[in-house]
Amino acid sequence: MNLKELNQLFQRDLEKLGNELKSYSKEENLWIVEKGIANSAGNLTLHIFGNLRHFIGLDFGGIAYLRNREREFGVKGETRESLLEELEEVKKIVSNSILGLNPSRLGDKSLHDFFGHGMSIGFFLIHLYGHFNYHLGQINYHRRLLD
Prior knowledge:
By secondary structure, this protein is an all-alpha fold. Helix content is about 65%, strand content about 0%. It contains five helices and no strands. Helix 1 packs parallel to helix 5 (about 120-145). The termini are far apart. The mean pLDDT is about 95.
């Protein structure tokens, strides 16, 4: 695994997240939950931020962060501008953390065991990228459904 290329993928898709947020015709639509969708785009965005800040920024970059899942799923109505500002922070955190990771550690055992078995740091990073993209797709669908 090439960490520089993995970072490029994260950065590309974090940029896509920003474009999705900017593409909502009405800012209040970011927080609507309807038509069988469990979470708003705003809450999914906050969840992505919390996930990346915790598992990449804190775990791999050593960047202090206290995860607040209540904020991720309970807060409503933060401004689009505040989400975009936080996105810029998250982009830097992800980049600094991934690029600062020693490639020799990719085969080391991850701190986390979400799947009932141990996994390598490289495997976990790929999982985090997939998780992020899953929610990015949900945000895209949410936007198209409402606009």
